[in-house]
Amino acid sequence: MVEQALVWRPISILLLVSHASLLVSSGCGSVQTDIRSTAADHGSSRPPPTPPLATNETYPAGCSVSERSALLRFRAGLGDPTGRLSSWQPGVDCCRWRGVACSKLTGAVVGVDLRNPNGRWKLSGRDVDPSLLRLKSLTHLDLSGNAFHGAAIPAFLGSFKELRYLDLSHAGFAGAVPPQLGNLTRLRYLDLSSDLPGVLRVDSLGWVSGLSSLKRLSMDGVDLSAAGSDWVRLLHERLPSLVELHLRFCNLRTLAVPPADHFPNFTSLEAIDLSRNHISSAIPTSSMGSSPLPSLEHLDLSLNRNLTADVSTLLGLGGWQSIKTLRFSYNNLHGEIPASFGNLTSLVELDLSRNYIGGGVPASIGKLCKLTGLHLSWNNLTGELPELLLLEPQKQQQYCNSASPLPRLVRLSLNDNSLQGELPAWLFEHTSLRALGVSSNRFTGVLTESPLSKLGNLSSLRLDRNKLTLHISSDWIPPFQLSQLGLGSCGLGPKFPSWIRTQRELSWLDISNNGIADEVPPWFWGLSSERVVYLNISFNSIRGRVPSSWRPSPRVGCLDMSSNLLQGHLPSLDLLALAPVLCILDLSRNAFHGRIWPDVGEIMPRMKYLSLAGNYLTGEIPPTIGRMRGLQVLDLSKNNLSGGVPTALHDCSSLIFLSLGRNNLSGAIPASFGRLYSLRVLLLNDNMLSGEIPPSIRGCSALEALDVGGNALHGNIPTWIGSDLRALRILRLRSNRLSGEVPVQATNLRFLQVLDVAENNLTGSIPEKLGSLGSMRYAAKLYSPHINGGAYFRLSLTVYMKGLSLQFDIKTDFLVTSIDLSGNMLSGELPRSLTNLSGLVSLDLSSNLLTGTIPDRIGDMRQLQSLDLSGNYFSGGIPPCMAYLSFLGFLNLSSNNFSGEVPAGGQLDTFSDASFLGNPHLHRALFQSSYPRDDVGTVYINKSVETRTDDSFSMGLGFGFAFGLLAPFTIMLIKTNWGAVYFQFVDHIVEKLSKHIKCMLWFYARFGAAQPLGA
C-alpha cells in the first residue's frame, strides 16, 4: 500500500478579536478600533491549503463490499441538508464518492474527508457509527466543521492502527476526550479544537505518550485544567517530533518549563499558540535563553492577563534566530524594549499591546526589514518616535536594501501611550501601509493632505485624541478608501469636513470633539446609513435635526451623537429597529424633546449602553426598558421625566450604572432594586422621591456610588450601609429629611471618598471613628468608573466646597475627598481623630451646634483645600499650625465664639476678614507697611517661628496665596478633568480676594491699628 503523503495546513496563527472604545465584552463585536494582522498578511510558513486526498480517480479495483456497506451505514446516521453526500449510492464504487479516497494499489479506503469547507454545508449527526471500523486501511479521517450535537468522541477511533491524520475540530463533540486515542502510534496530525471552550475536556494527558510520531497537536478550546502543572514536561518528553502546538483557550494555569538543558526534544517545534488561557506565572526566560527552540517561528502567548516577564530580557534572548511572529498582548509584561530587539531580523509581526511596557521605541527597530506588523498600543511608552530611526541612508540601504526604514510595514499600532513630539516623516513614506494608529497619545503638529496623500493603500487611520491639527481642504480627494477613520480632537471645525464624503467604505468613524459648529450635511446621513458599525460625532456644536428619512446601517453597533445642539424629537424607533445589533446609543446633552419610546425595550433588547441624559424629555420612563436584559448603563438624568421609578428595572440584571437624577420623579425607591447585584452606581438625586431608603438596597453589595440627595426621604441613615455596602466610594444623602444620628457603622467604609449628609435633621455627635476612613487618610487615588471592555460611563457629581457648588465629571478619575455634615443639628466637640484624615480635601461642618476648640493637630491635614466651620459655637483660639495648610484655598470660621488673635503669616494671610466675621473676641493684627522686607520670605515655612512682624503682610499675602494656589498646578497638568474645575474656582477667588486686599490696604493706611472682627 502506498503511504499517504502528509499534507500540512497553514499554521493557525490566532486572529485577535478587536475591542471597541465604548463597547462591553459581549454583543458588539462587530465594532473595531484596534488593528491586528493575520498570517496571510506576512506570509505563512506553510503552503496554502490543498485537498488532503485524491478522490474520484480511476482505481484498478473498486472498494470492497464490506467497506462500501460500512460507509453507507455511517452515511445513514448523518443529516445532509445540502446534498453533499448525494454521490454515496449503493450501486456506485465508493472510491468515486465525494470525500472518499482509496489506495491506487489495492482499492482499499484510506481516507474519508467530510470537512465542512465554508460553514454552510454542515452534516449533522448524534454519533459516529462504529461501522467505520471495517475501514482497516484508513489513514485519514476529517469530520471537522460539522454538527454532532454534543456527541462524545468515540473511543473506537483509537483502533485505527494506520491512522495518520485525525481532524474532529469544531464539529460539536463534547465530553471527555477518550484516552484510547493514545493508541494511534502512527498519528502525525491531531486536531480536537472546539468552538465552545470547556465543552470538551481532557481528564489526563497521559494518553499522549503513545503519540510519539505526532507533528501537530491542536486542542483549542478543550479544557485542560485537570492536566496539572507539569503538562509542558509531559508533552516535551512524549512528543519529540512535535512541530506545531495549539492549546488556545484551554484553561491552563501555569507555564512550568524544564531547564534549558532538558529541552532538546523541542528542537523541531515551529509554532506554539497558548493564547487566551489563565496562565499566571512568569515566562521562563531563563529556560528559553540558550536556544532551546532553534526552529521556533511563531509564538502566541496573548490574552493570558497575568503572564509576567521583563520585556527587555524577553526580547533580548538569544534563542529567537528563526522567530517570525511574537504575540504577547494582554499580559503583564513590564520593562523597556531593548536596543538588541533590532537583532530579530526574521521578525514579521510583533504584538506587545495591552501591557505595562515603558520607555521609548528604540531606533534599532529600523533593522527589522521584514516587519509587516508592529502593535504596541495600550502601554506606557514615552518619548518621541525616532526620526528616520536614527539610521543613515547608507546603513539603511545595508540593512533593508531600501532607502526607507521598515520597507514592508503594513500595520503600525501605537494607540493609547504617552508618546509625544511630531510624527516623523518616514511614517508617510510607506506606500504599502494599510493601518496607522497613533490615537490617545501626546503627538503635536499640523498635518496636511500632502503627507497623507502618499499613503494610497491605507484602510485604517487613527489620529484621534492627540494634540494634532489637520489642515485639509474641503475639496481634497484622498487616494485611499478607509474602513476606519478616527479624527477625534483634531481641530477639524468649525465647518463639517466634507472630504469625508469620498470615503465610501467607512465602517468606523470618529470625528468627536473637533469644534464643528455646522449642520450635518445630507450626504453624511447617507454615508452613515450604508455600512458604518461605529459612529461618534459627540462633543461638537453640530446643529439640526435627525432626518426622518435617515436609515442607520443594519450593522451599526455604536451610535454616539452626545454633547451637540441637535434638536427635535428623538430619532424614530422604527428607524432604530433597522439596526438590530445596536448596543450603544448615546444621544445625551442635546435639545431633543418629547417622550421616550414606549416600546424601547422590545425593539432594542440587545442594548448595553443607553444615555438620553441632558435633554428636554417628558413623560414617564417606559417599563419596557426592563426587557433590555443585557443593559449595563442607563442614564436618563437631567430631563423633565415624571411618574415613578419603574420596578421593571430590576429585570435589567446586568445593570452597572443607573442614573435617573435631576428629573421630577416621585414615589418610593423600588425595593426590587436590591436584586441588581451588579450595580456599581445608583444616582436618583434631585427628584421628589419619598419614603425611606429601602433595606433591600443592602443587596447591591457592589455599589461604589449612591446618590439619593435632593429628595424628600425620611427615616434614619441605615446602619447596614456601613456593613453591607463596603465598596462605597461616594455616599450622598444631602437635602432630605433624614433624622437620627450619623451611624458609627459608616466609618467602616474604608474606600469612601465623599460623605455628604448635609441639610438634613441629624442630631447627636460626630462619630469619633470618622477619622478612620481609610481613603481619606491618604491622597486620593484614581477612581475609574468603567464597564467591561473599557467603556467609561459618565458620572457627574456635585460637591459643595470652597463656598461653591462644584460639578465634577468623573469620566476617567476622581481625586476629591470630601466630608460635608453641614446644615444639621449635630452637637458636641470636633473629634480629634478627624485630623488623621491627612488626605481630606474638603471639610464642611457649618450650621450645626458644635462646640469646643479646633484640634491643635489640624495642621496635619496637609491636603485640605476647603474648611468651613461657620455657624457653630466653637471657641478658643485659632491654632497657628493652620498657617501651614499650604493648599487651603477657602476658609470660613465666621459666626462662632473664637477669641484671641488670628495667627499671622502663611496661608492665613491669604484670607480676608470675611472668613472670620461674627467672632466678637477675635482680632487680627494689621501691618505698618504694605511692602515686605527682603528677609521675610522664609518666615512662613519655618514652624519654629512663633512671632510675625507687621511688615510681613505683603510677602505673606503674595507668597502664601501664590503657593496655596500654584502648588496643585503640577497635579493639574496631569489630571486635566479636575484641573478645569480648579481653575474656574481660582478665577472666582482671585477676583474676590483682590477686592478684599485693596480694602484692607486702604484700611491700614487710614487707621494703622488692629481692629476687632466681631459683629
UniProtKB/TrEMBL annotation:
<feature type="domain" description="Leucine-rich repeat-containing N-terminal plant-type">
    <location>
        <begin position="66"/>
        <end position="103"/>
    </location>
</feature>
<dbReference type="InterPro" id="IPR055414">
    <property type="entry name" value="LRR_R13L4/SHOC2-like"/>
</dbReference>
<dbReference type="Pfam" id="PF08263">
    <property type="entry name" value="LRRNT_2"/>
</dbReference>
<protein>
    <recommendedName>
        <fullName>Leucine-rich repeat-containing N-terminal plant-type domain-containing protein</fullName>
    </recommendedName>
</protein>
<keyword id="KW-0472">Membrane</keyword>
<dbReference type="InterPro" id="IPR046956">
    <property type="entry name" value="RLP23-like"/>
</dbReference>
<keyword id="KW-0677">Repeat</keyword>
<keyword id="KW-0433">Leucine-rich repeat</keyword>
<dbReference type="Pfam" id="PF13516">
    <property type="entry name" value="LRR_6"/>
</dbReference>
<feature type="transmembrane region" description="Helical">
    <location>
        <begin position="953"/>
        <end position="974"/>
    </location>
</feature>
<dbReference type="Pfam" id="PF00560">
    <property type="entry name" value="LRR_1"/>
</dbReference>
<dbReference type="GO" id="GO:0005886">
    <property type="term" value="C:plasma membrane"/>
</dbReference>
<keyword id="KW-0325">Glycoprotein</keyword>
<feature type="region of interest" description="Disordered">
    <location>
        <begin position="37"/>
        <end position="57"/>
    </location>
</feature>
<dbReference type="InterPro" id="IPR003591">
    <property type="entry name" value="Leu-rich_rpt_typical-subtyp"/>
</dbReference>
<keyword id="KW-1003">Cell membrane</keyword>
<dbReference type="Pfam" id="PF13855">
    <property type="entry name" value="LRR_8"/>
</dbReference>
<dbReference type="InterPro" id="IPR013210">
    <property type="entry name" value="LRR_N_plant-typ"/>
</dbReference>
<keyword id="KW-0812">Transmembrane</keyword>
<comment type="similarity">
    <text>Belongs to the RLP family.</text>
</comment>
<keyword id="KW-0675">Receptor</keyword>
<keyword id="KW-1133">Transmembrane helix</keyword>
<keyword id="KW-0732">Signal</keyword>
<feature type="signal peptide">
    <location>
        <begin position="1"/>
        <end position="26"/>
    </location>
</feature>
<dbReference type="InterPro" id="IPR032675">
    <property type="entry name" value="LRR_dom_sf"/>
</dbReference>
<dbReference type="InterPro" id="IPR001611">
    <property type="entry name" value="Leu-rich_rpt"/>
</dbReference>
<dbReference type="Pfam" id="PF23598">
    <property type="entry name" value="LRR_14"/>
</dbReference>
<feature type="domain" description="Disease resistance R13L4/SHOC-2-like LRR">
    <location>
        <begin position="326"/>
        <end position="512"/>
    </location>
</feature>
